[in-house]
Specification:
This protein has 4 helices and 9 strands; from the N terminus they run E-E-E-E-H-E-H-E-E-H-E-E-H. It has helices spanning 93-107, 134-148, 176-181, 212-251, and strands at residues 24-28, 36-42, 45-55, 68-76, 118-128, 158-164, 170-172, 186-191, 200-206. The protein has a 5-stranded mixed beta sheet, covered by helices on one side. The chain has a 4-stranded antiparallel beta sheet with strand order 7-6-8-9, with helices on both faces. Strand 8 (186-191) and strand 9 (200-206) form a beta hairpin. The relative contact order is 0.17.
Length: 252
Amino acid sequence: MVQDLLSAQGLRMDGRRHNELRHIQCKLGVLGRCDGSAYMLHGNTKVIASISGPKHPSKSSGKKDESFIFNVRVKFATFSKNGERQKVVKNSKKLGEIEINLKNIFKSVILVEKYEKSQLDLNIEVLQHDGGSEICTIVNAATLALIDAGICMKEYVCACTASLTNDGIALLDVSHLEEICGGPTLTIAALPRIGDHEQSVAFIELSQKFYLKDLNKIFDCCQLGCEKIRAILDEAIRGNAYEHVNSDLTSN
């Protein structure tokens, strides 16, 4: 570990406790001319996700043998990294990894049997990011967009990170500054525990190696974060539904 991530008062660099999430704000139905969309603000990372479909597969897809076609496209805005201009590379290795991970995560959660011989397109635009764990914001925004589009899924997919201090305290929802100054980071995307159903993990990534004795502690911290994020997403979805119902009642 390079630097202590907790002060003597138990506060982190941004004033949070060890088990607190960064500020999260989300909204569904933010774009027109698509079947579902969502905006997600998580810390300093801003993401818009949109869904097109389900629809008949396009001729250009070239995947006639697949019963369900799920296309993922991720784009980082030119000034997305802390307002600094950066070169946008369409087929970069990082973009390719994110797109493959998203495809694998959501193909395991979407009820694909309901969408045989159909195509679904997920488009992600990262408006702003402070580096590191933007995959979490992307996954959470994509979950909201899929739900806004009415796509049937087994459960919400929620993603979160965790790290460890010099004193062995697990830190929930690691910021970019903490990633730079601290140690290894664990990222998971999971289907949180609901009632008697156990949480299942759809994606896991380690930035560096952990000691085996610390892994369970950090993993449990990540799971707790996913459950907290699910509650926030659920509140946003219910609020959006109430708005639609009230507007329909008012118009009638």
